Amino acid sequence: PRSSRLARLSRSVTFSSCHRLHSKSLSDEENLKLFGKCNNPNGHGHNYKVIVTVHGEIDPVSGMVMNLTDLKEYMQEAIMEPLDHKNLDKDVPYFAEVVSTTENVAVFIWENLQKLLPKGILYKVKVYETEQNVVVYKGEETILE
């Protein structure tokens, strides 16, 4: 009997969005000091790259952790449809009360994918805001007591 093999499978997509970094909890002056040019009232844009990684056993029959066609469709629904060519702050209800930082974009994508993917298979969401600025989110939370 062969032991089962575990693997990670990744797929990337690129989407374009604009946003403004602005917290309703801060004054205009505090926002400008914290976010600088990213607080521009008219916003600014990015070409985000997202790499989604799933993990699990390699199926002995199909040879796959997951069918890439299925992953592509889930990513289309969870990432491209809600985010591509959108103003994150105005077009995506999630960001009405949440600052549209790359960290929060990664959480948004994670939560959307969790609703679609088989339970326990999502491993990591990596979001490139620029070549230099990257956020990795693995679903971790801290419990406030």
UniProtKB/TrEMBL annotation:
Matches recorded under Pfam families: PTPS
Pathway: Cofactor biosynthesis; tetrahydrobiopterin biosynthesis; tetrahydrobiopterin from 7,8-dihydroneopterin triphosphate: step 1/3
Class of this enzyme: lyase
EC number: 4.2.3.12
GO CC field: mitochondrion
Cofactor(s) this protein requires: Zn(2+)
Any one GO BP annotation for this protein: tetrahydrobiopterin biosynthetic process
Keywords of the record: Lyase, Metal-binding, Tetrahydrobiopterin biosynthesis, Zinc
GO molecular function, one term: metal ion binding
Summary of the function given for this chain in its UniProt record: Involved in the biosynthesis of tetrahydrobiopterin, an essential cofactor of aromatic amino acid hydroxylases. Catalyzes the transformation of 7,8-dihydroneopterin triphosphate into 6-pyruvoyl tetrahydropterin.
NCBIfam families membership: 6PTHBS
Family to which this protein belongs: Belongs to the PTPS family.
Identification of the protein by name: 6-pyruvoyl tetrahydrobiopterin synthase
Protein source organism: Serilophus lunatus
